[in-house]
């Protein structure tokens, strides 16, 4: 009797011990997090009808919730970023995918990039005109090619080899963007035609800075970032902005943060905005908010550039920093609820 | 007599004073500095004939001395970088300009970029096939367009608008590079054809990492960097490497350093190599040597990438750091004499 009591006692001890051990090794319930943007620029309350504002708010919410759903179902931050951006690309409201602005040639030329913080793997495409969801092609470049950046017709050949159907360029057509191009061309004719330098700057800001992007933190503590754009209205000469440039428009590193930018791309390239935010966190131990403010409110401002970034760190702290009038943006608050903001 | 003596004395004092003042206000005789590279890779003493080694050494010396001559004649670091790189582009020895490798389509697709440290202005071109000196077109993009990066046919249209003559693609042909392409295609046929991932990696290192670049410090204390390349033999899908990417293959900032990279471009993009070296100097106060060693010998090595960088800081300290077998390189020593090195 004493022996069997002793045995039961020992088994109980073993059971308690192993349970405690299992508990210690279980991953902590981490905070997931997500921020998206739909472009920055001269977005004023007075320039949006209530109907338009509602349309933007609804679409941003839909995109954010698509990402949230992925994260809540144990998906990766990369999956969440892709899911959220596809919804913005498919909407004619934003300058990416359907609804992209027109180049000077009257075509659409789309750029996108994606980066995974745990592996530092990245993929990007630039100057594609037949890809419905450039963000997904950027991901395929990352996962199925040895390259980071593919461009033009070559990128589309690669897409076909990987089962991506090309779409008729008519898919991207929207009346609004077509009229913007005609307006730009009128302006150019009227006096800026001879001045190539000025021509590149003649667009109203909201047509120049529209871009969409997302950053996310998943339950494994891994970060991802993605950005997609149609570039500038009336753009010429195969111009590529910061969106497909890793380190300028997009960056993710699990040691620091994930960043997606929107704005006057040339300035973002020259400063290496996304990479610099990560560097300030890594080397100067700034918070994600301090780092984005240093780069956008000080460095970008000093250089004369306009735009903004969204960023998230590995603890789920977020930043949405811009020096333009507004930035379409949405994030999950600490309770996991979507919050949409547009103006300053 | 006393009066005139007094006047002479006073004038003498004035003269001495003004000379001393002028002397104090004169710019200090600053140290000029320059480093160039002609690519990194599996460059072994055993793989070069004495004649070939001499040819490389002579051309590197000629390029470096062209840059030195600009600097000694009060030219800018930007002028020096352009002059040095044009000589390497014009030589069939290096994978840039004449002598560029062939794409899978049997064409030449050239990339280049340049950056000025005092203004943080930058220019780049990618995927051009009719430009004799892509480095000079990159500079024109920087100086005469509102953009940083122009690509493909659009970049060539811009070139023509700015008086740059297009050359017949035959200009770039060299028997050696053509045979390398045939060899690559043979290898691909033999077993790697189905494996797109491997295909991108099938080149011997020295055909993959060839690139030329230069960094310089002028007498005003201003830095500049430039890089030019033909990319990878047998490259496909409009692939763009790190050479035209500001922050990856090229960076210059008078606060820190000027950097030009050569190597397996995808890794350089993912790490943002050139921008990271500048960040380590700015935020962690590393020397240019410590910063390049941290990024190339630690970070690049850890990620599995191969290649190297040349860099110079605003005091003329230089670094030439690589984790490959060799790197074609040359620099001005403290006495202003050219020193050429190839192997480890």
Note down, in words, how this protein is organized.
The structure is a homodimer of 344-residue chains. By secondary structure, chain A is of the alpha+beta class. Chain A has one domain: Glutamine Phosphoribosylpyrophosphate, subunit 1, domain 1 (4-Layer Sandwich). The first copy, chain A, has eleven helices and 13 strands. In chain A, the strands form two sheets. An eight-stranded mixed sheet of chain A has the order 4-3-2-6-5-1-12-13. Chain A is globular and about 50 Å long. About 10% of the residues of chain A have low confidence. At the A-B interface, strand 3, strand 4, helix 5, helix 7 and strand 7 of A face strand 3, strand 4, helix 5, helix 7 and strand 7 of B. Strand 7 of chain A pairs antiparallel with strand 4 of chain B, so a sheet runs across the interface.
């Amino acid at each position: 009797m004493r022996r069997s009591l002793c045995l039961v006692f020992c088994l109980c001890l073993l059971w308690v011990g192993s349970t405690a051990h299992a508990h210690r090794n279980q991953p902590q319930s981490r905070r997931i997090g997500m921020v998206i943007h739909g472009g920055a620029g001269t977005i004023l309350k007075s320039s949006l009808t209530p109907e338009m504002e509602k349309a933007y708010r609804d679409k941003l919410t839909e995109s954010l919730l698509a990402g949230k759903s992925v994260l809540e179902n144990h998906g990766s931050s990369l999956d969440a970023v892709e899911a959220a951006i596809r919804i913005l690309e498919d909407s004619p409201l934003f300058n990416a995918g359907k609804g992209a602005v027109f180049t000077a040639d009257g075509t659409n030329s789309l750029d996108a990039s994606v980066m995974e913080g745990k592996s530092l793997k990245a993929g990007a495409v630039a100057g594609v005109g037949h890809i419905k969801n450039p963000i997904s092609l950027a991901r395929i470049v990352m996962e199925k090619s040895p390259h980071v950046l593919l461009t033009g017709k070559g990128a589309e050949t690669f897409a076909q080899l990987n089962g991506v159907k090309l779409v008729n360029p008519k898919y991207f057509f929207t009346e609004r963007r077509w009229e913007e191009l005609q307006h730009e061309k009128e302006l150019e004719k009227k006096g800026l035609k001879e001045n190539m330098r000025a021509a590149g700057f003649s667009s109203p800001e909201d047509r120049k800075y529209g871009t969409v992007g997302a950053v996310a933190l998943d339950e494994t503590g891994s970060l991802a970032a993605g950005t997609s754009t149609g570039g500038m209205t009336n753009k010429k000469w195969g111009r590529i902005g910061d969106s497909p440039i890793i380190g300028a428009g997009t960056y993710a590193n699990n040691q620091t943060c994930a960043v997606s930018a929107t704005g006057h791309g040339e300035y973002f390239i020259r400063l290496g905005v996304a990479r610099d935010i990560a560097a300030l966190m890594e080397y100067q131990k700034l918070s994600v908010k301090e780092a984005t403010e240093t780069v956008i409110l000080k460095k970008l401002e000093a250089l004369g550039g306009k735009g903004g970034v969204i960023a998230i760190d590995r603890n789920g702290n977020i930043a949405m920093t811009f020096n333009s009038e507004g930035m379409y943006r949405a994030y999950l608050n600490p309770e996991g609820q979507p919050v949409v903001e547009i103006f300053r």
